[in-house]
Amino acid sequence: MTKPESIKAMFTKERVLTENSDQARELFNQSTYGKILTNGSLQLSLLESTYLLEKEKIHILDGKNCPITFDQLLQKTQRLEKMFWTKYCVYRDIRERGYIIKTALKFGAEFRVYDRGVKPGEDHARWIVFPVNESQSLTWHDFSAKNRVAHSTKKRLLIAVVDEENDVSYWECRWLRP
Residues 101-141: pLDDT tens digits? Predict the structure, then answer.
């Protein structure tokens, strides 16, 4: 059985746009990557693009039609986004565990995560996730603010800690009434 052809995409500013193809739309329909645009192409976030490039599901071209390697994309994204590598480690780990992960900026968090088998729009996300590097400090004030955001959005709080080996540990926090 031959491996399916990867999807062609273009790097534009802070997003990656795929070609208008059945394969690209299938990527959205099956795994909810990106957002379908009116022209039929898929708009992918930098995290989604980096992950899909690493998995060889897409190949990305720059403005001069030259291929962008994983390392080149990583360099570009790290210049554009603070803590990109930490966020990427968490994104990749959650995706590889079989969960759907999306941005949660409108909730005041980095990510929202859906239970396995649940797609955005079918039900609400169960968790909001705040990625941190193990060398970062988190004050009680920061922790309280993150917990308040989770509680007010009726989601569970996950603090995702990335260590020096890029392994991720999760700490779930919830409000309890005694």
Answer: 999 887 788 999 998 888 888 899 999 999 999 998 888 88
The residues carrying an active-site annotation are 114, 124, 155
Pick from 41-45, 94-98, 148-152: least confident: 148-152
Kindly report, as residue ranges, where domains of CATH 3.40.1350.10 are found in the chain. Answer: 84-173
- Assess if CATH 3.40.50.2300 describes domain 7-80: no
Percent helix / strand / coil, the chain, rounded to 5: 35, 30, 40
∠ CA 42-48-53, rounded to 5°: 95
Q: What is residue 3's predicted lDDT score, i.e. its pLDDT?
A: 54
pTM (predicted TM-score): 0.91
CA atoms of 72 and 78, how far apart (whole Å): 10
